[in-house]
Amino acid sequence: MAEKTRTPKSARTRAALLEAARELFAERGYVKVTVRDIAAKAGIDPAMVIRYFGSKDGIFADAAEFNLELPDLRGVARNSIGEALTRHFLSIWDSPDAGLPVLLRSASTNELANARMREIFNKQIRTALEAIAGPDEAEQRAGLVSSQLLGLAVCRYVLKLPPVVRMSKEQLVKTIGKTLQQYITGRLPR
Amino acid sequence: MAEKTRTPKSARTRAALLEAARELFAERGYVKVTVRDIAAKAGIDPAMVIRYFGSKDGIFADAAEFNLELPDLRGVARNSIGEALTRHFLSIWDSPDAGLPVLLRSASTNELANARMREIFNKQIRTALEAIAGPDEAEQRAGLVSSQLLGLAVCRYVLKLPPVVRMSKEQLVKTIGKTLQQYITGRLPR
DNA sequence: CTCGTTTATCAACGTCCGTTGACTTCTAAT
DNA sequence: ATTAGAAGTCAACGGACGTTGATAAACGAG
Predict the structure, then answer these.
(1) The pLDDT of residue B72
(2) Could you tell me the residue ranges of all domains in chain A?
(3) Topology of A73-185 in CATH?
(4) How far from A43 is each of A4, A13, A32, A96, CA to CA, in Å?
(5) Does the distance separating the beta carbons of B151 and A143 come in below 8 Å?
(6) How many Å from the CA of A160 to C1' of D19?
(7) Residues of B 54-93 whose CB lies less than 7 Å from any atom of strand C
(8) Which one of A107, A108, A144 has the shortest CB-CB distance to B175?
(9) Which residues of chain B have a pLDDT value below 50?
(10) pLDDT by residue (tens digit) across A122-161?
């Protein structure tokens, strides 16, 4: 026990609040979670949420922050990019404190969540695809890829459609991956 | 001017409230619309909402009611089922008083919306697919179809991703239709 | 121990919302 | 014209929520 806790007490309660917030936001979405809920789950006074994060929007912004570490697609064999992307997102969505699940639940009611979601699925994926497709085509391909990835997320994590929940990760990687592959390297309609 | 208005006055205000409710719920979602908003938009007293629909949940239930008239897929050439389905849903989503847009916006925060959505995309689509696929396979295929259709809807109507919004209906029918076709008649992974 | 600073507690304010009930106005049949 | 019932108006209640400020407790440096 060389060192116990060098962190100031405040940092620990701040972290506890943030963790509670992430879990609640991820499972109920922005509007159905109250500041009092977060504080109660963390065993802390609701006023602390305001003290440390300024407002409910403030703690949501922090809870929804994260780095979408998109793999560098140039390091992946051209014909397995679709599967790689699918596997990557399924992994992210299964980790409950990743921020992306938080956004997913709140994108339809919270402006910030909506904006960040659009940023990810319009800019980040597009940038990643530009490494292997023409810049003009990249955006449209990114849109198609987004539609399938987001639909998978909605069905599996929000709506919890039985057949989509039941399918294994590898089944999904194969099936959805094949679709993404088509969207990324296949022909586009005029 | 043979007949002016045979409908009782009550039916007209009821209809006005319902129309206002549908528009508001479709564009903001359940939680961001208040009973007072609906009444104001219809130029009617908020108390009338309770009088005619019982509660906010009551008017939402009515606003979100609709018949998903799935086309009989047996009447469609086997290799153009995917395109037919895509075209059908795009048409439904573009009509603002269809109920389905209402559900789409509220599925993440309202229990009833969530349940109806699951009903449509798990039961109705599955039933339609059973006409052309084995009953055991039909459910899984319906899940995959749902994931792509819902993702398209989220990107185009909720998130409004530029490339997905920009694509024409026929472009989408071709591209997304091809994916659905694969999910309906293609091979499934083990 | 003392004292200034950080951290936490508590009660309350102001607002917004769904819902209610008392009351007025309108309508139509006798 | 009278009157019963339907339709609409209005103010208010009760509760939940985000947020605040005053106050107390815990802590660390001197």
Answers:
(1) 87
(2) 10-63, 73-185
(3) Tetracycline Repressor; domain 2 (1.10.357)
(4) 22, 9, 19, 20
(5) no
(6) 36
(7) 55-57
(8) A144
(9) 1-4
(10) 999 999 999 898 888 999 999 999 999 999 999 999 999 9
